Amino acid sequence: ETYGNGPAWAEVAKQVGLADATKSAGSVYVDSVYRAGAGQRDALEKFLSEPPKRPSDTSSGSVLMQHLEGSEWNFLAVTRYNSWDDFAKNEIRPVAWEYDKDGRWPQEIIEQAWELGLMNNHIPEEYGGPGSGYPDGAPVGEERSWGCSGIQTSVGCNGLATAPLILAGSEALKKEYLGRLTETPLLASFCLTEPDAGSDVASMKTRAVRKGDKWVISGSKCFITNGSYANYYTVYAKTDPAAGHRGISCFVVPRDAGVIVDKKEDKMGQRASNTATVTFPDVEIPVDHLIGEENK
Question: What predicted TM-score, i.e. pTM, was given to this entire model?
Fold first, then answer.
């Protein structure tokens, strides 16, 4: 009820003996309810059996519930976090200055957020995510940004990178690439901007050429969030240069296909967020890695 989720939260609280949890400030709150993929289940069990040390006693103690619904296990994690606001207050805010000052990559915070089920909330249940959707992610992003906008950008970028995949990807691509993010604390990057094509996307020079059962991607993208650390990239490229903005297609490009990270930007702010130039030197990907239809 506190979070606007009404009966769902009240029922979970009731099941674990916390009938008043949503009414009393400072008491235990239901923090995460999600269906986890295999890797996330293992991480959750590890967290609950050996909770990491935290700077605040508000995070002491966790309860794990399991119940079977059809053939799917559902894990309900109940912690002494009051949701993302406590995580931002206790885990992000105290170290935000150090990360920003040094431009340090927040790997530890990313892994901790993933283990707690506080990442990838937008991914549908059938691919291992909680299926919360993008609107529900907005207040989560707001809380993370209060802790550190740079760290929020790093933690939240998977939402942007996977949006085209969720909207138009084939079932096989969704299972493979959405599944990667829910089974392991990996990151993806959204690659659209180029040195000469920012707001004017139709001016992009990156090309994708069909050669047999492969697409060959050639070009360079700049200002790519998490570019240095991404496991794969959602890349926009011209497949019909003469058609202007109607000749652009979207692809999933795995990092190990030959992607090169050229340079990390030394930014004025949001320095805990990695921003890099990413180059695709005639990178070959399978023909089925096209997202949606060609030129659409």
Answer: 0.73
